[in-house]
TrEMBL record, chain B:
<dbReference type="InterPro" id="IPR003439">
    <property type="entry name" value="ABC_transporter-like_ATP-bd"/>
</dbReference>
<keyword id="KW-0406">Ion transport</keyword>
<dbReference type="InterPro" id="IPR027417">
    <property type="entry name" value="P-loop_NTPase"/>
</dbReference>
<feature type="domain" description="ABC transporter">
    <location>
        <begin position="7"/>
        <end position="243"/>
    </location>
</feature>
<dbReference type="GO" id="GO:0005524">
    <property type="term" value="F:ATP binding"/>
</dbReference>
<keyword id="KW-0067">ATP-binding</keyword>
<keyword id="KW-0472">Membrane</keyword>
<dbReference type="InterPro" id="IPR017871">
    <property type="entry name" value="ABC_transporter-like_CS"/>
</dbReference>
<keyword id="KW-0408">Iron</keyword>
<keyword id="KW-0410">Iron transport</keyword>
<keyword id="KW-0813">Transport</keyword>
<dbReference type="InterPro" id="IPR003593">
    <property type="entry name" value="AAA+_ATPase"/>
</dbReference>
<keyword id="KW-1003">Cell membrane</keyword>
<protein>
    <submittedName>
        <fullName>ABC transporter ATP-binding protein</fullName>
    </submittedName>
</protein>
<dbReference type="Pfam" id="PF00005">
    <property type="entry name" value="ABC_tran"/>
</dbReference>
<dbReference type="InterPro" id="IPR051535">
    <property type="entry name" value="Siderophore_ABC-ATPase"/>
</dbReference>
<keyword id="KW-0547">Nucleotide-binding</keyword>
Amino acid sequence: MTTTLELVVAGRRRRARRRASIVGVLLVLAAALFAASLVYGRTVYPIGDVWAVIRGEEVPGATFTVGRLRLPRAVLAVIAGFAFGLGGVTFQTMLRNPLASPDIIGITGGASAAATIGIVFFSLEGAQISVLAIVAGLMVAMVIYALSFKDGVAGIRLILIGIGIAAMLESVTTYVLSKAGQWDLQEALRWLTGSLNGSSWSDVVPLLVASLVLVPLLLSRTGALGTLPLGDDTAAALGTRVEATRLVVVLAAVGLIAFATAATGPIAFVAFLAGPIAARLVGPGASLLVPAALVGAVLVLLADLVGQYALDTRYPVGVVTGVLGAPYLVYLIVRTNRAGGNL
Amino acid sequence: MTTDHRLVAQQLTLGYRERTVIEGLDLEVPPGQITAIVGANACGKSTLLRSLSRLLAPTHGQVLLDGKQVHRLPAKELARTLGLLPQSPIAPEGIAVSDLVGRGRTPHQGMFSRWSSDDDVAVAAALDATQTAELADRPVDELSGGQRQRVWIAMALAQQTDLLLLDEPTTFLDVSHQVEVLDLLTDLNRSRGTTIVMVLHDLNLAARYADRLIAIAGGTVHSSGEPRDVLTEDMVRAVFGLDSQIITDPTSERPLMLPLGRHGVVGSTADGRRSQ
């Protein structure tokens, strides 16, 4: 005869174990893909050479190819994927709807429209573009919030307005790119679907710094985010300061998304897919922040490898994630139509 | 557990935008007792309950817990003393019962929500008290309405507050589950001394289970006190606009309200007029 206490402890341990093992598997997977994207390429370098380069030793050929090309690219893939995944799942949890991802409701679109305008019309670069993208992301978030505010914000109204704004912003980006002089297709695709081509350490640094600040800030709100899916009133009754939490969390999530977009362009659907995939993996109820962030990193690493080497032509990472994400979006809209979907 | 927390509303005015729902209401929640708030639809019962638990800021007046304004108290500190079960809380898809009940521990946990053995004990006690232990691993969305309501109450119990406010905890339940929930709340009150305030639709169940009734009409307290003093024919007419007859319930010796509609009463005519 088991006591209720034993039952409670056993249930909690089982859920925690499942979550921990999923997080472990995702970590191993991310590490393996990371290593693979350093080793693999037109020239395959043995892992020993790669390790030597990472430690700072001179290896003919590898020092340039791995150290200058592949390493920043792989590091950027990890951090951007992490940021997209975390930012996306935060929005989805907060608004209790998987469609509420920042890449669906126009926040990513705002960041990339602003970045393209900055590049094409004002010849901005580096940190200036990051700042512009972040300001634009925040502004779009505020505009959507303001437009959907009527006796509080209803999730579905916010999402529909966001989808409309996303479409508008995408056409702005396309228009601006068409005005760009000798813009090559690759650079254009970076701002339409996201790409890791031509990544350098100067892309990594701002995103890394932002992540070091914003990720702990978001993770510190795990408890509050765990109460929001129970409804605003229940969350408040459990001691969550609903509006204050929402403000902090939105700012942090938009910041992450905008910094990542400034670095890689809006890698399609990663923010949107990471949360639901993580939810399927860890099971109901568990906090999805860390699992979704890791799923994001795995998705970007994997999609970049596929895009570069699995097909005849090299495709930017966003094309591959786009192919994965679009059918899921359609599925979700169909399901939401029937039932009012949940994460 | 202490039962001497005092929850008081003074000159409370509540509303949404221009629409005032409650105006100049004074109220004292008797500690250690069960209080039922009754009133017609849209009279502001739920609004009042939300304000008592700080979910709605008053336009005028104040709500005091032990002499301090609830709107000034730190959110978590308040949530350790005063719990609220809203009318329609949302269960995340697929969440297990014990996991949901565990959310009640949030105000007792720190920033990164570290779980302690106290939390396990509280959750187990809440499951036992609500007889939901055998459901612990089941997904909440697979449960019946009555079971689900007990699970929500278990979550509120896990919060271990001395004061518990409930907004229509018996809505959507059939009569046996209504009685079950009210019995459970009475157990809680008798064994732990938890002060309970609930909004109830059913006047007769309110009169049977509550130590005190508060009748709300016209944005303020119409009458309050023991059920026998509050549940009168005059009150029912003034608050609900309904003729009624009050008798003494032989099973509880509490007042029992019999509505006098146009039909279904001895002596009523076919066109619905009552013979004098």
